[in-house]
Amino acid sequence: MARKKKRAPLPELPPGARFFDSHCHLDMDDYNADRSEVIQRAARAGVSRMMTIGIDLPSSRAALRLAETNSGIFCAVGIHPHSAAEADDAALTEIRQLARAAEVRAVGEIGLDYAKMHCSREEQITAFQRQLELAAELKLPVIIHDREAHYETMAILRQAAPLKHGGVMHCFSGDLALAREVVDLGFYISLPGVLTFNKTESLRQVAREIPLESLIVETDAPFLTPAPYRGKRNEPACVLYTAQCLSEIRGITLAETAAQTTLNCEKLFALEGK
Ligand SMILES: [Zn+2]
Ligand SMILES: [Zn+2]
In the structure, what pLDDT confidence band is assigned to residue 8 with cuts at 50, 70 and 90? Predict the structure, then answer.
């Protein structure tokens, strides 16, 4: 008889613990067959709130619809560097209009991606700067995507500083020195499931050394599934694996990690008491 590999259970949920997935993409087609089950599974796993993030106009609209129709789901609207060429006046006007909704808690994801270069550097920089200005005008924090563009991302953020409503470097991929610069700007660092992979010593060092008051966790679902499900579709419930890994690295309980990272998200997205 063929032996079936058993699915590893989620870490045991500490009583009363509430987790916050700071970054996922629930509007994506990957969830068309079972979106409501995915959302229910998150709730059962203790992930009581999550931010679903826009990457262009259609996904920003869809993210807002999801947030409007599901308690515990909030959203960000914005144009990802891959779609930077679309960030014209009309698009930014619509982002501004969408952001009037109470469920919109950030502008994002915005930033620079020099790994894939779907748009030119000039287009990416212009779209990034214009959306930083928009976030300041809207009094919202920013969700930053930075891939292989650490130096220029930081230069642009410093130029835009002070960013009074703060922000987060999502899916952090830099080293400890960069993490310290991000924290000095008053930003949070969001740790993805990559933390659970082997050979990520520099990210583990960030997780160990940066004060817990500046760390949050995310899935970036449907991407970047943490171990033990690496390679499969990700979903918000899996943020527990990353939180568990962070707890082990710091030598604290999962309950402590849940409490502090959730509080950090509440502060960042102005959701205290919501
Ligand atoms: Zn991203
Ligand atoms: Zn994302």
Answer: low
